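Dissemination and training. As part of the outreach component of the grant, students in the summer workshop were shown how a complex can be specified as a set of sequence lines and then modelled as a single object. The example used during the hands-on session is reproduced here so that future cohorts can follow it. Participants entered these lines:
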Amino acid sequence: MISRIRAIAFNTFREAIRDRVLYNLIVFAFLMIGASLLLGQITIGVERQLLINLGLTAISIFGVLIAIFIGIGLVSKEIDKRTLYTVLSRPVQRWEFIVGKYFGLVGTLVVNAGLMTLGFFVALLYLMHRLQPSDTSILAAIYFILLQFMMITAIALLLSSFSTPIESAVLTFAIFVVGSFSEDLRNFAEAAKGTTHYATLALSYLIPNFATMNYIAPVARGNPVPGSLILYNTLYGLLYAATAVCGASLIFQNRNLK
Amino acid sequence: MRDIRKVMVTIETRNLEKTYRVGFWRAKPKVALRPLTLSVDHGEIFGYLGPNGAGKTTTLKLLMGLAEPSGGSFTILGGDITDPAIRAQIGFLPEQPYFYDYLTPLELLNYFAALSAVPAKERTRRIDATLKRVGLQEDAWTTQLRKFSKGMLQRVGLAQAIVHEPKLVVLDEPMSGLDPMGRREVRDLIEELHHEGRTVFFSTHILSDAEALCDRVAVLSRGELKGIGVVADLIGSVKGNVEIMWHGAQTVPTLRGLGLEVHTVGETARAVVPEAQVDKVIDALRAHQAKLIAVTPMRTTLEDYFLAKIGAPTEVAR
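and obtained this result:
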């Protein structure tokens, strides 16, 4: 089982790293980090804050775009191109295929984020001439970004298991945007009355809470990341992603291939 | 006797059927395969024939567990297709396969061998042997598949279907897109697999391939089994006509006078003659001093059988 999932994950990773679209996005992300470096140099006093804000946002946005655009095609592309037939005629369970594809893309995102993090720290070192012990909190913020990637990928996979790639892309992006403002949604639910109250409350629990995972601004201001938040976000992110991947596997299990 | 046969059966379907729901709200049923009962014996080459859209690919998808049957049941290698141990013994080539075009043949075969639990230390040897076997030039082994022609892709497709040395090889239109030489090589490969004791089940609409290769064939049309039988029996029977060829065009008016249709190319002439008239025609040719080239009894071809079955009512399969 493990060897099959590993083979599928590695193949997915190889597909992603041989895709030119991915490199275009990475180049854009590095350009963003470079631009924030320039902005930092012409700003007085807040150059570090600006670099962290813009740099980590670039890592987050481009990672989310990669997660959505590759995530929605993970399964549908294999069905359209019929590459799936030869895979599923092997001793591969359908859920193993889904899990393998998922880990393959998450692996790609982790490697990309790792590269961009390296680029970011080089920029930070260039700007500040030295790194501080408090910079480790930047790594915690990046870890939260990775958790978001895991959730977004799982959501894209789930939605693409029953809708078209375009619908999945739009919906996943909408969920990412709404999830990033989930605190506001919860506040709105508290203020609302009757059916609206229950509907928005249910929606606020259903949609992932990305707000709690966005710790870029506090880190940029030099605030430390509480250990309890790391624990909470880890549990929440992993549980949410696992549930979505299980849902995708269940739907895919009973699907007729055209 | 029945028990012994059962052990020897590789594929057995019982009233296997498939209906898709199409249209808005999926309200309209579309029958892709009517109840199909057939068996494929161990070690035989079985041809699954039918025109385009007959339901061949649907049947193969059901057998490979890629689609859920609407009714009936089937066994493969004595077990259930959902059992990974059974699937490990099957090699499948889909129709018009499209493989991961960012991979090289070596990477692709390594991937599929890994999925089929071929031990890592065995893989290199088996992959090399398989690629040589399907006739793929060594300099193409490390080229990405996106640069391959259709014929080369078909070879890679065949390679992935046999790299794990399966007991049953299921091929959907394996000769499609190949030039005459490629088709010949695939035919040779199928025969080799047969000699190794593997069962080959393949669909095709190219009847000459089926006639040259198959032990038995089944004919499918509009989702319905129209006939099934041993190829040697189907194509052997004499049709009651004899083809006569001779040299000497001066005989043509006389033979046309006997009511025969005579075709001529230069001095060579040819006519299809009812058996009862053969002696009379040969006598006439001798009388005109024509040179007899050939007298060949006409036999039923697989094409005759196929065309007869396509328009015929359903026959009960064995």
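Residues 238-299 of chain B form a domain with the VC0802-like fold (CATH 3.30.2130.10). Students were then asked to discuss how this feature might be tested experimentally.
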